[in-house]
Design a protein that fits this description.
The structure holds two protein chains of two kinds. Chain A is 36% helix and 30% strand. Chain A is an alpha/beta fold. Chain A folds into two domains: 216 residues, P-loop containing nucleotide triphosphate hydrolases (Rossmann fold); 80 residues, Alpha-Beta Plaits (2-Layer Sandwich), CATH 3.30.70. Chain B has two domains: 264 residues, no CATH class; 104 residues, D-Maltodextrin-Binding Protein, domain 2. Chain B has 19 helices and four strands. In chain B, helix 5 links the parallel strand 1 and strand 2. The longest helix of chain B has 35 residues. About 3% of the residues of chain B have low confidence. The chains are: A alpha/beta, B mainly alpha. At the A-B interface, helix 2 of A face helix 1 and helix 10 of B.
Chain lengths: 303, 413
């Protein structure tokens, strides 16, 4: 499956919240929608789920217009909740039936996911009597109940305790391995880095960065070096770069006990090394810079 | 369609399993069965232990209150005739006023009457209480005795005069049109029952929708099936359950009344002998009216985020509904009134107003068809609008949405 989102625009009243969102994702891969709070991630997901209509733009699955009702989608909304006064098993069966699952498979699926998430013993209890962690597990069971072909998770890790986060990570990995198409939004970079090959970074309703995460990291690290001098503090190193290396270094910043610098061009790397050596500086660390997703995120959308 | 049936089944079971529904139905059922059996129960008690009243130990005079009569001039010729006509008790004659007052002070007698002339007397009592009937009862008895004595003095039989003053007429009422008076009982019960059901289930549905929003189930639901299935399922489930509840109560009432018919002596026929045709028309107008209002209540529930805001949001519609009920109830006094006639074609009020006219007044068949048609079309329109508002309200949290803002928001989504 190949899902293609093209130029989504959305206005609420006078306010335009999406200015042309585009991205694509294929089965067996996960796309991470990144962005700060209010960037437009949830609105994009709600348009995908047909909760909102976009003012402009198209969504195609395998080159045909995408209608979420024609597919089994495991959707975990940002605003979570189920019926607090209903028995766990009753509401799972109800939601499964609504999604068109056959009765014969439905109970089997429900019991499988309750077992998988370790909450089988609560199946006949009212949801409100369960702890918050177990309620989250029931919510996850309801998401994956229909054995979805597409998985859309809106901020799936928010509010999860470390144990439940670990369980969800395993489930997401399994979904990707099983060739499911996975989209999830988050502002927690570490999770996105763990699963996603593709990312779309949204800021104020615009995609500011999109594509393969490895390529993005590579491009972002291009001409960048990490430098640590044994005999100099970061402040002194910074001062040194300003005084003696202005012709080679475009800009630089300090990060913890080291300095990240960007060369004016790739061919300046050897010359930079040579001049460091000529000045007999105690070079403790000299390496290519591999940016984390957080670095990319902050540099792309940070103020 | 399968999803709709799933929603319907889920919602019906939700109502039936609710303790409030079960307890309310049981209490009302018990009240109807016990209430309608009271005459039979009382009859059985009286039959089982006749010695309580007529036994040897019972002496009527012991329980009968005594009053004193001081009549030195003998204006009353037969004190027994006075006692027979005096419904509060019996009289004892006194020869002096002071012993009468003494007995009143000692509580031997309840009160006394001293005659100064045939038309002038004194009523003596210990404490004057709000509900004291002594004066009225004596005046009634003494008037009778006085009339009998005066007529006897003129050689006229009192019974002859009584026949002239209060003749016995045999009357047969022949109603050519509808007997509004006879239909009043069951029409009132049906109108009031429908009013209660709509108010109760309307609030229940609005609260259920608002709680689905507040507990965030709604977003899961609307991405799992069509919103129209959700709201239609909820509203129609309420209709099925309320019909079931109403049917159980009416059925139990009819059955208990049939079992106790002898004890009631047909006195409640005006309530329980409802013609089938009227029940059919009630079902048609009642169901459409129910759907019309509960769709509105459901949509109102979607406009708020917290269940405690439901009442505030539903107040304008509840007010309209109460006014409609008042029009129908006052219209029952005069089914030809212009207000009732106009109301019987307006969808907000036609389900009650037209039913009152059908049940108690004279109305042509085409008026009924037009009214039903307008109501059915309006109910469909309100249903579609309610499912759009429900969908719109799904993701709107925060302050309740104002009714005037709905068109703008619907357009923007």
């Amino acid at each position: 499956m190949h899902l293609e989102v093209q130029n989504l625009k959305k206005t609420f009243g006078e306010k335009q919240v999406l200015h042309g969102i585009s991205f694509e994702v294929k089965s067996g891969k996960a796309l991470g929608l990144l962005g700060r709070n209010g960037a437009g991630k949830t609105t994009t997901i709600r348009i995908l789920m047909d909760l909102f209509e976009s003012n402009e733009g198209t969504i195609h699955l395998n080159e045909k217009p995408f209608n979420p009702r024609n597919h089994q989608i495991g959707y975990l909304p940002e605003e979570r909740g189920l019926y607090p006064k209903k028995k766990v098993i009753d509401q799972l069966l109800y939601l499964g039936e609504l999604r068109g699952l056959e009765k014969s498979n439905l109970k089997k699926n429900a019991l499988y996911w309750l077992e998988r998430l370790g909450v089988t013993e609560y199946k006949d209890k009212k949801l409100e009597t369960l702890s918050k962690g177990n309620q989250q597990k029931v919510q996850l069971a309801s998401t994956f109940l229909c054995h979805p072909e597409i998985v859309i998770l809106d901020e799936p890790f928010s509010g999860l305790d470390p144990v439940n986060s670990q369980i969800l990570k395993e489930i997401i990995r399994e979904q990707i391995e099983n060739n499911k198409l996975v989209i999830f939004s988050s502002h927690q970079m570490s999770y996105v880095e763990e699963f996603c090959e593709e990312i779309a970074l949204i800021d104020q309703g615009n995609v500011v960065l999109t594509g393969n995460l490895n390529n993005i990291k590579k491009n972002f690290g291009k001409n960048r070096l990490v430098l640590k001098l044994g005999s100099h503090s970061t402040l002194e190193t910074s001062d040194l770069l300003n005084r003696h290396f202005v012709d080679l270094v475009d800009h630089h910043e300090t990060k913890k006990d080291r300095v990240i610098l960007k060369l004016k061009s790739e061919d300046k790397k050897h010359e930079f090394m040579k001049r460091l050596s000529d000045q007999a500086l105690d070079v403790e660390l000299f390496a290519n810079y591999h940016p984390s997703l957080e670095d990319i995120f902050i540099e792309s959308v940070g103020e | 369609m399968k999803s709709f049936l799933t929603v319907l089944k889920f919602e019906v079971m939700h109502y039936l399993k609710a303790k409030v529904f079960q307890i309310t139905t049981l209490i009302l059922l018990a009240m109807i069965i016990i209430g309608l059996s009271i005459p039979t129960i009382m009859e059985n008690f009286n039959k089982d232990d006749p010695s309580e009243i007529n036994g040897e130990n019972y002496t009527e005079s012991e329980d009968v209150p005594h009053y004193g009569l001081y009549d030195p001039e003998g204006y009353i010729q037969d004190i027994n005739l006075l006692s027979d006509s005096f419904y509060l008790g019996e009289f004892t004659a006194y020869t002096d006023l002071s012993s009468l007052k003494k007995d009143i002070n000692n509580n031997t007698i309840i009160g006394g009457y001293a005659l100064n002339s045939p038309t002038d007397y004194q009523y003596i009592m210990l404490n004057n209480e709000m509900m004291d009937n002594g004066l009225y009862a004596f005046e009634q008895a003494y008037t009778y005795v006085y009339r009998v004595q005066v007529l006897n003095e003129r050689n006229i039989q009192y019974s002859d005069v009584e026949d002239i003053l209060y003749p016995n007429f045999n009357v047969t009422v022949d109603v050519l049109g509808k007997d509004s008076a006879a239909n009043y009982g069951y029409t009132y019960i049906l109108v009031f029952g429908l009013y209660m059901i709509i108010i109760m289930y309307g609030q229940l549905i609005a609260t259920a929708v608002a709680s689905e929003k507040s507990n965030r189930t709604m977003e899961i639901l609307v991405t799992s099936t069509k919103t129209s299935y959700l709201i239609f399922g909820k509203v129609i489930a309420g209709a099925i359950v309320s019909l079931l509840q109403f049917g159980i109560l009416i059925g139990a009432g009819k059955m208990t009344y049939a079992l106790n018919a002898a004890a009631w002596d047909g006195n409640l026929d005006m309530i329980f002998k409802i013609p089938g045709e009227i029940l059919l028309q009630f079902a048609a107008f009642g169901i459409l009216g129910y759907l019309f209002f509960t769709f509105i209540f459901g949509a109102l529930g979607a406009l708020v985020s917290k269940t405690e805001d439901v009442n505030t949001s539903a107040t304008p519609v509840t007010l309209i509904f109460v006014i409609v009920f008042m029009i129908a109830i006052t219209g029952m006094q005069n089914t030809e009134g212009i207000v009732l006639k106009i109301a019987s074609f307006i969808p907000f009020s036609s389900f009650l107003a037209m039913f009152v006219r059908v049940s108690m007044g004279s109305v042509t068949w085409y008026e009924v068809v037009i009214s039903l048609g307008i109501l059915a079309a309006s109910t469909y329109f309100v249903g579609v609008l309610a499912s759009k508002i429900y969908r719109m309200g799904t993701l709107m949290y925060g302050n309740p949405v104002k009714i005037k803002d709905i068109p703008k928001i619907l357009k923007s989504q």
